[in-house]
Amino acid sequence: MPLQRRLPKRGFTNIFKKQYALVNVSSLGRFEAGSVIDVEVLRAAGLVRKKGLPVKLLADGEVEVGLTVKVQAASNQAVEKIAKAGGRVELLTL
Question: Count of domains in the chain?
Answer without folding.
Answer: 1
